[in-house]
Amino acid sequence: MSAIAVPALDKTFRILDLITASAQPLSAAHIAKRLDLPRSSTHNILQSLLDKHVIYKDAENRFYLGSYLLYWAGKYEQQQGIIQLFKELIMQYPVLLQHTVTLSKLDIGEVVFLACHESPAPLGFTFRAGVRVPAVFSATGKAMLSTLSLPTIKTLYKNVFPTPLTPNGVSTFDALSAELQAINNSRISLDDGQLREGMYCLGTYIRNASGQAFAGMAVSFLQAEYECRRDDVSAALIELAQQIEQRLGFISAQTA
């Protein structure tokens, strides 16, 4: 499916790119002229950006980048930090390196893939950074959801359960709740062909310094590999997650 253009958003990014690239602050008239945009829409966009502190203007009504961008940058750096730790520490686990291992974050009711260690054997599913899937069907999603209450999870989906992607997909909040209860006992989640038939994934969550499960990891197998590799991979996955958590500053009750 082709991307849907959003003209106002395109104009906004063009304006931000111009302000970023300019060695000197620019007036609204200058911005409109340089980008060949109507002055009225340029003014409206600039005002919206001002209201959100994405840009600011000086006493001469010239525009600069604003402080809100530091918030975005901070979140990006935090995200990049977990990616770097994932790539660095996974190298200590040969049992995991044999498989496809993904790092994800939870974004409302979806999982967004951040990074992936690719298995030498193809799985038939693309784990590219930025790919999104419903959290209720993915191993990393289930792992992170297991740390939330059921009412909170229902709120994420506005009380409407997503349509299963395969015949194996969990289909109700009650069925999901039973799966999440099992994860609470083991710290390991299972996608048994719910994301893609024939592909099994074991997952767990990663907590930050405040104890929030803000990321997850999963190991993917072909169905035939799952039974014989499950125990060793689960143990290594939990150990890797705990090692990342320690590097992020999380202190568990057991070690406090």
* Average pLDDT reading: 89
Report the radius of gyration as a whole number of Å: 22 Å
* Biggest sheet descriptor: 6 strands, antiparallel
Helix-strand category:
alpha+beta
Strand order of the largest sheet: 6-5-4-9-8-7
Report the count of strand segments.
Answer: 9
Strand content: 15-25%
| String of helices and strands | HEHHEEHHEEEHHHEEEH
Between the first and last Cα atoms, what is the distance in angstroms? Answer: 51 Å
- Backbone shape: elongated
Enumerate the spans where pLDDT stays under 50 for 5 or more consecutive residues: none
Query: How many helices does DSSP assign?
Result: 9
What helical percentage do the residues reach?
40-55%
Can you put this structure into words, describing what you see?
The chain has 256 residues and is α+β, with helices and mostly antiparallel strands. 45% of the residues lie in helices and 20% in strands. It has helices at residues 7-21, 28-35, 39-51, 68-89, 94-97, 139-145, 150-156, 173-186, 223-247, and strands spanning 26-27, 55-57, 62-65, 100-107, 110-117, 132-134, 189-192, 199-207, 213-222. The strands form 2 sheets. A 6-stranded antiparallel beta sheet has the order 6-5-4-9-8-7. A hairpin with a 4-residue loop joins strand 2 and strand 3. Helix 2 packs across helix 3 (39-51). The model has no long low-confidence stretch (mean pLDDT 89).
